[in-house]
Amino acid sequence: MPRIPPELCTRCKGFRLLCGLPSCPILDRLRSQTRSLQRAGWRRDVEGPTPPSILVGERGYPRVRLYYMVPPGASPQDASRYEDPQGWRERGVPLASIVRLRSELLAGSIQLNAARRAFERLYELEIAPAALSSRPVDSMVELLRTPVPRVSFDGYTKPVGPTAPARRVVVGGNPSLEPKLERVLWEDEKAEPLAWELYRSGVDVYRIQRALSLGALGRLRNRRLVPTRWAITAVDEMLSRRLRDSLRGRPWIDTLEVYYSEYLHNRFLIILLPGAGWMEWIEIWHPHGLWTQTAAAPLVWRVAEDPLGRKTAEDGGFSAAKLPILEHLSARGRNADAIIVREILPQYYAPVGNWHIRETVRAAMKRPIARGLSHGELERLAGGLVNEWPLAKRHITLLKPRPTLEDFL
Q: What secondary structure, in 3-state letters, does the chain show?
């Protein structure tokens, strides 16, 4: 097999298959190593409460598979810990525990045509209400065969445990939908205004993502299932656009501010500067990590976005990170330029989805660690937090002096 450039692996993250291979050899190796985490002796009739947890695949679109997940034998009181991004971050749940939790979820798959009134069918079967419920719902999944003992990983969605085609899914409990969410399910409106309405009413981002993925948002005649990976980034982008609009014309912050947090062997340094809303995303992957095993030096990936939301590249990690920053600025009623540096250490051995980016940046934005620093002071502080700060700085343009109108007069 020809040597794959590590830069390509960093961009691909295992799911775009930019190398041309039928599957990612790194993730294939990881799946084989995680099989020991699986429970033995799965039965074909499995009972358990959905946390709730679903995933819509993208392979073969518009004919897709919906995965309905349950932790067999778990109590309703315990089920929610299997799908709890905010709680995982708040409690500091380690990477190995998250992989273990997700590997214990059994996924029954249902094949659907994304464009043929799939949401109505899922609603009639009570699968859609169960997936959007605010609390776990007792379920029974009848499988066609014994599930395959593996864990599926990618860089955007949470891991999925053993899977098998489902003969049927029976929802035995009563789903509990937030009144605002239940009301918009049948509103004939574009998806973005509905997502914004839900967000403003307090519905959490993860439930909005599931609603979009299930085809529960949008014009009634055009609704279709959306692969979960696409829905995650789409919701981040829709909400970010609305928050950007609310900041247009607002006063700038008056000094440089620094924020920092780390989780799951990922470090996030956020620098806010007086400005109109430019953003830069600098991602640094250490060698000998999941996607950089053959790299001799750290690899860098950069995305820039202007105040109108025009990006140099699409990146789901950047979309997840900028949402909490815009939330923070919107709450203050101030605008700013933002630099986001993400440093990924080799110990990040299993991708668990980009939720941890969103939640770690959100945690960082709760309190600045420094304000009003000079550039020299910023250098010393950033260098103590991010190992590869000198490398990151070479790719950052927002820290360089920018021309003003006076320079052209």
A: CCCCCHHHHHHHCCCCCCCCCCCCHHHHHHHHHHHHHCCCCCCCEEEEEECCCEEECCCCCCEEEEEEEECCCCCHHHHHHHCCHHHHHHHCCCHHHHHHHHHCCEEEEEEEECCCCHHHHHHHCCHHHHHHCCCCEEEEEEECCCCECCCECCCCCCCECCEEEEEEEEECCCCCCCHHHHHHCCCCCCHHHHHHHHHHCCCCHHHHHHHHHCCCCCCHHHCCCCCHHHHHHHHHHHHHHHHHHHHCCCCECCCCEEEEEEECCEEEEEEEECCCCCEEEEEEECCCCCCCCCCCCCEEEEEEECCCCCECCCCHHHHHHHHHHHHHHHHHCCECEEEEEEEECCCCCCCCCCHHHHHHHHHHCCCCCEECCCHHHHHHHHHHHCCCHHHHHHHCCCCCCCCCHHHHC
